[in-house]
Design a protein that fits this description.
Elements lengths: L1 H14 L4 H15 L6 H10 L6 H14 L2 H13 L5 H17 L2 H18 L4 H13 L8 H10 L3 H30 L10 H26 L5 H18 L5 H34 L2 H12 L3 H15 L5 H19 L3 H15 L7 H10 L3 H24 L2 H9 L1
Helix pairs in contact: 1-2, 2-13, 3-13, 4-7, 4-12, 4-13, 5-6, 5-7, 5-11, 6-7, 6-8, 6-10, 6-11, 7-8, 7-18, 8-18, 8-19, 9-16, 9-17, 10-17, 10-19, 10-20, 11-12, 13-16, 14-16, 15-16, 16-17, 17-19, 18-19
Length: 423
């Protein structure tokens, strides 16, 4: 009954449009006052949340992605990929998804990926006659690869919350990330081939391909350095993010695209996003601490274990709940609210926490392109200067593909676990 009242109170605060960070934090403080517990526990939890070396990766990856965004790196990536596949049926759609995947391997941010590639791809594809809703939907979905293909900021936060290996989570995200990118590409090719609403472009010459690839080579080297340094054990994710930021600054400056004004803009944008992320994490930490004192996660875990003995039914229930709250909460809030509650039940169900992290991220990835609070829908709406309804119309087939990927993960766990455990 206590859990029910807390849930109702949280929903009420969110319905009243109280920012997620303050809704979680204030409710946590109230619960601690009722417990009762000395409120000096609140600043202790807040300080403990921020005093994390692993969490340093978040602002560093954000800073790096904003530097690349201001440096116009997305244009080089898109041009390089387009030179190789642009002449194929639906070639610009293929180039868009591949560019999103490559930029995701650098930034770790869905928003940065959608904004960077969208700025270049939307005008190019619409100029070539591609259906506008299809273009907008593809960019919104392609941007979501940023939270699945490593390095991924949500996977970093999941690893911190659950104390699981972040490099292992990154490895587990590769298979589903590449599979989703493949599905998006196949759909794009089939859609454009049957609709016929595109103008083919000429095959690029080998000289043009070489020139375009050389321009994009520094960014590809940056992605290789970041991922390789983590997987080879040379650097932690936080250290790798710092290296990536320095390299991004050097690359964009050497290209003559970075000025002090752009550095200030990138820093300010990163500061804004980092503040929002850290406030949500801090509020979620206080809320999580409070509900732990009330034994709510343990009670829910016991309730699930005693009533749902089948792990498949448990995963089905989790999936339905995440789909439901995904209509009302953005991805980071879903992660920080639900993971502390659900995680204790995983061991009782004999569910691999690495696999569950990837399954969870695929579902919150879907929430990024479902109304009314799908963040990528709003990003692409702004970049493409389009009505939200047009973006939603183009995005729903991609949302279906994401849900089918979650179902495939359910039945074929090696899609996520083969690379980290068996390769």
């Amino acid at each position: 009954m206590t859990a029910f009242f807390i849930l109702v109170a949280l929903i009420a605060l969110l319905v009243l449009r109280v920012p997620v960070a303050f809704a979680l934090g204030s409710l946590g403080v109230i619960l601690l006052m009722i417990y009762p517990l000395p409120l000096n526990a609140v600043p202790q939890r807040l300080y403990g949340t921020m005093d994390s070396f692993e969490l340093l990766a978040v602002p560093m990856f954000l800073l790096m992605s904003n530097v690349l965004l201001k440096g116009g790196v997305g244009k080089d990536l898109f041009a390089a990929v387009q030179s190789w596949v642009g002449h194929l049926p639906g070639g610009l759609g293929i180039a868009t998804i591949l560019s999103c995947g490559l930029f995701s391997a650098v930034s770790g941010s869905s928003v940065a990926t959608a904004a960077t590639i969208g700025t270049v791809a939307i005008p190019e594809m619409t100029k070539r006659g591609y259906d506008r809703p299809f273009v907008l939907g593809m960019l919104a979905a392609g941007g979501t690869l940023g939270i699945l293909i490593p390095p991924s900021i949500p996977l970093i936060i999941y690893g911190i919350v659950t104390e699981t290996s972040i490099p292992t989570l990154f490895l587990a995200g590769i298979g589903p990330g590449l599979f989703l990118a493949f599905c998006f590409i196949v759909y794009g090719v089939i859609y454009t081939k049957f609709s016929g609403n595109y103008q083919p472009i000429e095959r690029a010459s080998w000289a043009e391909r070489r020139q375009a690839t050389l321009r994009a080579a520094p960014t590809i080297l940056l992605a290789t350095t970041i991922i390789g340094s983590i997987y080879l054990g040379i650097a932690t994710p936080s250290e790798s993010a710092g290296i990536g930021f320095v390299m991004a600054l050097i690359i964009t400056t050497a290209m003559g695209r970075m000025t002090m004004e752009k550095v200030r803009e990138a820093t300010y944008a990163s500061l804004q996003t980092t503040t929002i992320v850290f406030l949500i994490i801090a509020g979620a930490k206080v809320f999580s601490y409070a509900i732990t004192l009330y034994l709510i996660p343990q009670d829910i875990s016991t309730l699930l274990s005693s009533n749902i003995s089948n792990p498949n039914l448990f995963i089905l229930a989790v999936g339905l709940v995440l789909l439901l709250i995904g209509f009302f909460l953005e991805s980071l809030s879903m992660l920080l609210i639900m993971v502390p509650v659900l995680y204790p039940a995983l061991s009782a169900m004999n569910i691999d926490p690495i696999w569950f992290g990837i399954f969870f991220v695929v579902l919150i990835e879907t929430a990024l392109i479902t109304p009314p609070v799908g963040m990528n829908l709003f990003i692409i709406q702004g970049v493409g200067k389009a009505p939200l309804s047009e973006v939603v119309k183009g995005a729903w087939p991609f949302a279906v593909m994401m849900l089918l990927t979650a179902v495939l993960l359910w039945f074929w766990q090696d899609l996520a676990l083969y690379i980290p455990y068996k390769l």
